[in-house]
Every structure is written in C-alpha cells, then in structure tokens.
Specification:
alpha/beta; globular
Length: 231
C-alpha cells in the first residue's frame, strides 16, 4: 500500500477525486481516505500545516494502514536560485532547520533521541518519481528539503538556511514525516513543487501560485503510481 500525505486540501483533492471504492475515517482530527488509486491500494491524508500535525498524521497512518511507502506531496518555497514557480524538488534527504541545540554542542538541525541531522529518503522511489516528470512537462530536480515550523518569507532567513544546510527548498512538514518513517522503518519520498521564492514576496507569490504548484505535485504522484506497472 502507498500512503500519501499533504498538508492542505488543495494538495490532495486531485488524488482523492481519483480514488476508487473510497472509505473514510477521521483520527485525531485528520481525515484519511483509503481505496484504490490507479489500480494500487492507497491511503491519502490531509495532515494540516506544521510538523506536529504532520507527525500525528504519519504515525497514525503507519499504525492503522501499514503502508509500504509514504509520499509527502505538496508545495514549498525555493531556496536554490535556479528553481522557478512550478518546478519540483524530489527530496534526497530532509533536515529540520528549526531544531537547534547548538548551545549543547550539537550541530544546527541535529535531532536528539534519534541522533540524526539528515533523514535520507528512499532512493528507488525518488529515482522513479524524477523519471516520471519529463513526460508531464514538469521540471524536476533532486535536492535536499529543509523543514521547519516557519513560513520562510525573508531573504536573510533563506540565506541562513542555505548556508547551514545547503538545501534546495523549504517547507513545514517533510522533516516530521521523514522522522516518523525512520522510526517505523517505512520508506519515504518527498515531492515539493515551488510556489514562492522564500523571500519578502513569498506570501503574495504563494497565494497566486499555490494552485499550480499543488497541481504539479499531485500530477507527479499520479504519474509515479502509473509508472509502477512498468517497473
């Protein structure tokens, strides 16, 4: 089974609309839709914004549905200068840019208890997702995802995240989802379509380009699922 998590309704509505024989349940305020997506058993959830919501969603999905792969799909802000609105970053790994115990001697982003800075993402799934992008006319690149409970809308903050983590894009859920997948030994992939530049114009750009970015991310999820028949 494939698990798919988005933060917002707009990020998952296209996926849910194509689900056959759907059954719905709500756990801890999070809605889950289970059924057949392009002939594959799947569960799609709308987690809500932020790492706590994402972690609750991912852990519940792991316990209730036992997916063999969890995909986090949605939108994000560009950190790499070569990225444009509508481009997609397929994660190589995820860091949590807002975690900081450096006063205790840890590097920025180091997650205690699991004692990791970066959470690797599934290479096989990520490679297949990248390969599914060109036929859709979507520009997709591999890159590091920086995750934190902050909508980045500052050139200074953007530059600091790039300096510390060399990340391609920033968003608010993938770090928690990747950590939950790590704890449950579930492969994880992250697809993030650019909605804004992570700078002072980010809020305006986000509102304008959210629909396009969400559409590209969802379409790439669907293209990846279709490609599984050829693997």
């Amino acid at each position: 089974m494939i698990g798919i998590i988005g933060a917002l309704d707009i990020e998952i509505e296209r996926l849910v609309s194509q689900m056959e024989h759907p059954t719905r349940r709500v756990v801890s305020g999070v809605p889950y839709v289970h059924g057949s997506l392009l002939g594959r058993e799947a569960v799609v959830a709308r987690a809500g914004i932020g790492k706590v919501n994402a972690a609750v969603c991912a852990q519940t999905m792991a316990l209730y549905y036992e997916p063999g792969l969890i995909i986090n799909s949605g939108v994000s802000g560009a950190l790499a200068p070569a990225l444009n609105v509508g481009d997609v970053v397929v994660g190589t790994d995820v860091v949590q840019h807002d975690v900081d115990t450096s006063a205790l001697g840890d590097p920025p982003g180091f997650v205690s208890t699991v004692n990791q800075l970066a959470f690797p993402l599934d290479q096989a799934a990520s490679k297949s997702i990248l390969a599914a992008a060109p036929p859709l006319g979507i520009r997709a690149v591999a890159g590091r995802i920086a995750s934190g409970d902050q909508f980045v809308a500052s050139s200074a903050r953007k530059a600091e995240i790039v300096r510390l983590f060399a990340a391609a894009t920033c968003e608010m859920e993938a770090g928690a989802i990747a950590q939950v997948c790590h704890l449950n030994n579930i492969p994880c992939a992250v697809i993030r379509s650019i909605s804004d530049g992570g700078n002072e114009e980010a809020a305006m750009s986000y509102e304008e380009f959210l629909p396009l970015a969400a559409k590209n991310s969802a379409n790439l999820v669907l293209a990846y699922i279709r490609s599984l028949d050829n693997l």
